[in-house]
Amino acid sequence: MPFEEIKSGVKTTEVRLNDKKRKAVKIGDTIRFIKRPKLKENIVVKIKGIKHVQDYKGLEEYYSEDEKKKYGFVIFEFDKS
Fold this sequence. Notes:
Number of strands: 4
CATH superfamily: Hypothetical protein
Largest sheet: 4 strands, antiparallel
Number of helices: 3
């Protein structure tokens, strides 16, 4: 599970659609991941790198072609804070 991988330090990147919300994230910012479905556990990570890409394999089913063309994707690299 991605949350457990982040918690253990195995997962150190996260890919998201580079929409308005994600464009505001800068190096040094923190992001809070909340474990689903109960939302009782969370992890805060500190952004140490940001990479922009136009396409990303594995996310095709989640976003429309229009969204992918309009926004592209962002890859956040992080450390647990």
